[in-house]
């Protein structure tokens, strides 16, 4: 990076979170650790959307909570606009905190049922002592309109809204402090499928119109496909592949990414090639005692002894476009990715 290149909006390196596991009798002591997040490296550029996907329990939410500093990292570094915020105190964090906001999965649990919508959305402004020109109420009404709700509903309570509308209230609350980065943790997975696209479209519009960057967390590759410019795939606390959207969906190099993608339904005509369906066997191993070497090897059809003894680094694979990184000793040859529908195996 040249000295004139501005740092990325968010720069995460070696980020680690290990939760202690306590046990023993009669005195409890630390007997191990859940390696929820184990050495993540990624960046999010100004106005960019990075999708973070993976199965339940792979560490996505923990990553989101580390970045918003709801959790204290065990190791690694988080930089925001070049400023190290990894262990910043509440006071040091104050100016940054308003710029990094979070949207939660559950639009039912994340809104106080006893507060009006007006109170909920103006809450962050009150806490941060922000008084917009025209007053807080006018700003809240403006925000309600921005997220597609009726400004006249200022005095209504959360139970008077549908799930999709409640998630819009959560979005309006996140927008109240004019954030530069929103960590959206499974923002649509609690919603009806018919409503999911509407909320994703809203977030997409905010990214485009307001230039807000997103870390969009989802377990479903289909959800991030239309929203994220880049996608990172996590498995058991690690990123196994990260690439531009077109590269990741069109040329997946990690066997795990390929397996996840094979489960995404495709709208193809009957005579066009379909992706081979790959069913992963076995469960995700415990993050307390992850496999040696490559963490995916216990479920990988390509694993060899090397995979058990050597941890594959996240590196650019020969021939890959710049920025397409994979952590695998035997990256996929995607020439064989599409197989005719007649040969499709289950
Ligand atoms: N406070 C905690 N104490 C101990 N273990 C935790 C804690 N929070 C999360 N974990 C564990 O860390 C691992 C990663 O959890 P995390 O919630 O980040 O995964 P996830 O990918 O977001 O999954 P999901 O989609 O189900 O929320 C899991 O094994 C989880 O049980």
What does the model show?
One of its GO terms (molecular function) is ATP hydrolysis activity. Belongs to the ABC transporter superfamily. It comes from Streptomyces alfalfae. By secondary structure, the chain is of the alpha/beta class. It has a domain at 252-346. The chain contains ten helices and 14 strands. The chain has helices at residues 60-67, 90-97, 117-127, 136-146, 163-175, 193-210, 221-225, 245-250, 255-262, 305-309; strands at residues 10-23, 29-44, 49-53, 75-80, 83-84, 100-103, 181-185, 213-218, 230-235, 238-244, 274-275, 315-316, 325-326, 338-339. The strands form three sheets. Strands 6-7-8-3-9-10-13-12 form an eight-stranded mixed sheet, with helices on both faces. A four-stranded antiparallel sheet has the order 2-1-4-5. Strands 11-14 form a two-stranded antiparallel ribbon. Strand 4 (75-80) and strand 5 form a beta hairpin. It is globular and about 65 Å long. Adenosine-5'-triphosphate is lined by residues 19, 34, 36, 54, 56-62, 219, 287.
